[in-house]
TrEMBL record:
Coiled coil: none annotated. SUPFAM superfamilies: Xylose isomerase-like. It comes from the Bacteria. This is TIM barrel protein. Residues 29-267 form the Xylose isomerase-like TIM barrel domain. Signal peptide: none annotated. Pfam families: AP_endonuc_2. It comes from Larkinella terrae.
């Protein structure tokens, strides 16, 4: 398993659960100094950071790109894969495809979280899920062509009324016509929705392609009441080889949050 820490470069989402903010170079340097294997990036668009510059920084600091987030598509442009307007859904697919191409240049998957959207008033749930599956089918095939996976994230009930639990996420993935979409197991969302974090991860098994490392209150692990011992044990049991990435609030501040995260990672996975 490999460690990662989030860096957000989108002012509109500044209050979100990201450890580092604004300064890409300084944040990557700090992550490397603490011993993180990679960083997870949230940018405003696929061309917000020049690939050549990012490659130079990765080489300079010896860190990789764990994943790229797509949330700016919804926050800035209002795009989701389940919008009733087909034109909006098409733009959402294009935005994610561009982000996916950017990430694939670094061997990193794109994450679909908020851009999945919701079942809108007047729309049948089955229809919304069909639109979601349509988008994931298109994007999953493109991900496979680029040699990466696409990561789909079940969110808690307060953020989406589509898929909230890993088990339902597995069912969604099994309905797709490609094998290149994997699940994101976000421990914060799971604390709200799952009966047992460890059991849910065990059932999802190889469908899990990424893990978000945050405590029950979305602060860094160790600042809430999540029991990580069982979670760590089942991930080791499954021989999970992906990233454990800190998508958590920068509490009490970014530097302390990053330090707490890497210490927790080493404690449970080192």
């Amino acid at each position: 398993m490999k460690s990662a820490v989030t860096i957000a470069l989108v002012p509109e989402i500044k209050t979100g659960p990201w450890i580092y903010w604004h300064d890409l170079e300084t944040s990557m340097a700090k992550a490397a100094d603490l011993g993180f294997d990679a960083v997870e990036l949230f940018t405003a668009s696929a061309d917000a950071v020049a690939p050549d510059r990012l490659a130079t920084l990765c080489e300079e600091f010896g860190v990789k790109i764990a994943a790229v987030g797509t949330g700016a598509g919804k926050v800035i442009h209002g795009l989701t894969l389940t919008d009733p307007d087909a034109a909006v859904r098409s733009k959402a697919v294009s935005f994610i495809a561009d982000m996916m191409a950017f990430g694939a240049g670094f061997g990193a998957p794109a994450i679909i979280g908020s851009m999945q959207g919701n079942v809108q008033p007047g729309v049948e749930r089955e229809q919304a899920l069909e639109w979601l599956a349509d988008g994931l089918n298109i994007l999953g095939k493109q991900a496979g062509d680029r040699g990466v996976n696409l990561i789909y994230e079940p969110l808690n009930r307060y953020e989406t009324n589509l898929i909230n639990r890993l088990e339902d996420g597995v069912s969604l993935l099994e309905s797709l016509d490609n094998q290149h979409v994997k699940l994101l197991a976000d421990l914060f969302h799971m604390n709200i929705e799952e009966t047992s974090l460890a059991d849910s991860i065990r059932v999802a098994g190889s469908a899990i392609g990424h893990v978000h490392f945050a405590d029950s209150n979305r602060r860094p692990i160790g600042f809430g009441h999540t029991s990580l011992s069982e979670v760590a044990a089942v991930l080791k049991e499954l021989d999970y080889q992906g990233y454990i990435s800190a998508e958590a609030f920068p509490w009490p501040d970014p530097d302390e949050a990053a330090k707490q995260t890497i210490e927790s990672f080493k404690r449970y996975f080192g």
